Amino acid sequence: MINSDSLALLKTGDKTLFSILVRDHHRALIALATPIVGTSEAEEVVQIAWGKAYNAIAAFEGKSQIRTWLSRIVINEAKMQLRARKKETLFSDLGSTDSDSDLLEDRFSQNGHWETPPANWHYDSPEALLMGDDLAKCLERILTAMPSNQRAILEMRDSSELPFKEICNNLSISASNARVLLHRARAHLFKLVDHYQETGEC
Amino acid sequence: MLKCREVVNEADQFLSYDLSRSRQWRFKFHLLMCKHCARYIRQFQALKNATPFMHPKASDKEVTRVMDSIDDQAPSL
Fold it and tell me: How many domains does chain B have?
């Protein structure tokens, strides 16, 4: 993990530190690019973005998280790839909120109160909540099966921590649509973790 | 009183102080009265905090591939 002390050295172009950055964020950036350009091109997009990030690292001011800064470079690169392929929209289902229902809906009674409340969760740290080999495999499966518009917003907002307004502008969708998509994506994760915490399997 | 379903649907706006002041108070009142929703909000926040860590670190092979391609294409600083 890069801390503020090592950031100054990183900005001088230190390749050992830069490789730590790559190790920490590469998979997350591929996950970010995947719903935008597709699995087959995501790796190439991220590869190019790393080159651009290395050349621009001296200009990183530390005003945002480094993941957020890297994510912006990847999104710009992904959009350039789409333009090169003359694709106008990122995904065919971009603004649609029809492709999936609210997964937590069946947890409520007709009067709108909990019928099946959340289980008790046990975890040692925030990072630990989504770790564990069994859970990681299920998580990967759920992310792959998630509608691409939901996944894109989940990756941009909760993994890359981009501001909500910027995501709406990036994807040219309304705030209300984005909120519905994000809510549904989080419901997928919530249901997975809740079930895993209760039963030890997923 | 708010319904639990409304609390779940508006959890993100509540935590971002994005609701009107009166809605924010009604939300807080509901959380004082409803242990299930109070737990949901705690877990929702924990899940949000955990999401940046949901992707595993890259393997040595992946790191080497990226660093090699930087060596190939990027001018040194």
Answer: 1
pLDDT digits (tens, 9 = 90+) for A92-113: 555 566 656 677 888 999 999 9
Domain for residue B75, yes or no?
no
Among all residues of chain B, which has the CA nearest to that of A66? Answer: B52
CATH number, domain with residue A52: 1.10.1740.10
Residue B46 to residue A30: CA distance in whole angstroms: 24
ipTM here: 0.85
The pair of three-digit structure tokens given for residue A169, joined into one six-digit string: 């502008």
Instruction: Catalogue the long-range contacts made by B19-25 (C-beta closer than 8 Å, 24 or more residues apart).
Output: none
The range of the structural domain enclosing residue B59 comes to 4-69
What's the structural domain count of chain A? 2
Interface subset of A 79-138, CB within 8 angstroms of B? 104-105, 108, 111-114, 117-118, 120-121, 123, 126-131, 136
Mean pLDDT of the region A11-39: 93
Contacts of A55 in chain B (CB under 8 A): 74-75, 77
B74 contacts A22? CB cut-off 8 A? no
Q: What is the pLDDT of residue A202?
A: 79
Higher-pLDDT residue of A135, A154: A154
Query: Closest chain B residue to A31 measured between Cα atoms?
Result: B55
* Pair (A114, A71) in one structural domain: no
State the Cα–Cα distance between residues B26 and B22, nearest whole angstrom: 6
Distance CA B19, CA B6 (A): 12
